[in-house]
Structure to design on (328 residues):
């Protein structure tokens, strides 16, 4: 089977980090998010991937090479202008043939059981199947009510908290038959969530959904991106990128320099980062070559590549663009 990975979005909610890179390449525990998706696919025997790119498409070249080095067949499509989630799938139709395929929103981090989802899809002879995940507050999302067999009954966007018929939301992982692509107009922006799926329900197509209690996170905001990193460090999201997960765990890439007398707790240190004497870094992600100088304090923050926090400065809850300098 093939998996189509939708990776063309601008990542506007994650700015300023996404001014210089797609969100799909931001690291989780020092491993690009996209490579965690590769991990999931290969665990479930899926070795063929099509990357659906648009924004900063050239930055995916290293990940394409990485996928091929690990034995995957990786193809790439490109949109000159964004086509939406369904339009991107249509743009890759030539890679599908007559095969059932997976599709992933590119900002989803999960360890869901893809084989169980595929079995559900085939048992119901579905034309498309949506993975659902529970959330505490469904009023912030679109919820997907189903009947007893899992057939989708409709889509309700951001219902009031006391009126949501379910707490299950679209998790951004799909299984589709090639016939679904025939329903998508070519060369125009078209959304799976707001157009394709509601149309399938309206037409009475065999659209089903199944829930999962596996780990799931949409990394599309700074807060959720930071939380995904913290979940990897604690082991809530399991990955071999963290050798010894637990509260306060620290992962360090190649070329990291940490001076004596520092306090580090729940931190991801990217390649070439430096933490100087007396600095305190907690619940934070430092991208490559970031520097925290003597006695500085960084808490609940994300430092872009090459960011420098000068001596004695304290920051908390910040997301800083690449090459930012914060002085006293």
């Amino acid at each position: 089977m093939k998996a189509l990975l939708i990776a063309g979005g601008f990542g506007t909610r994650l700015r300023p980090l996404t001014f210089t890179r797609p969100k799909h390449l931001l690291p989780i525990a020092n491993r690009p998010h996209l490579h965690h998706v590769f991990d999931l696919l290969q665990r479930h025997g899926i070795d063929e991937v099509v990357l659906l790119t648009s924004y900063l498409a050239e930055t995916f070249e290293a990940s394409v090479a990485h996928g091929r080095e690990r034995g995957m067949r990786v193809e790439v499509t490109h949109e000159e202008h964004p086509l939406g989630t369904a339009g991107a799938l249509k743009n890759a139709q030539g890679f599908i043939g007559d095969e059932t395929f997976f599709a992933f929103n590119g900002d989803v981090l999960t360890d869901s059981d893809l084989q169980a989802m595929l079995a559900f899809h085939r048992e119901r002879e579905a034309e498309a199947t949506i993975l659902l995940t529970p959330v505490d507050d469904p009023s912030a999302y679109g919820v997907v009510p189903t009947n007893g067999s899992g057939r989708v009954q409709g889509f309700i966007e951001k219902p009031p908290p006391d009126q949501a018929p379910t707490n299950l939301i679209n998790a951004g992982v799909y299984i589709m038959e090639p016939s679904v692509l025939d329903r998508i107009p070519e060369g125009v922006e078209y959304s799976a969530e707001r157009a394709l799926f509601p149309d399938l329900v309206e037409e009475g197509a065999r659209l089903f959904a199944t829930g999962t209690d596996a780990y799931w996170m949409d990394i599309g905001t700074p807060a959720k991106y930071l939380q995904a990193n913290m979940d990897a460090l604690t082991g809530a999201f399991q990955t071999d990128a963290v050798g010894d997960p637990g509260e306060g765990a620290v992962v360090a890439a190649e070329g990291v320099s940490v001076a004596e007398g520092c306090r580090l707790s729940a931190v991801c240190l990217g390649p070439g980062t430096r933490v100087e004497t007396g600095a305190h870094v907690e619940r934070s992600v430092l991208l490559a070559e970031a520097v925290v100088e003597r006695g500085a304090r960084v808490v609940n923050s994300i430092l872009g590549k090459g960011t420098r926090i000068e001596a004695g400065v304290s920051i908390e809850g910040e997301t800083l663009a690449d090459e930012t300098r914060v002085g006293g």
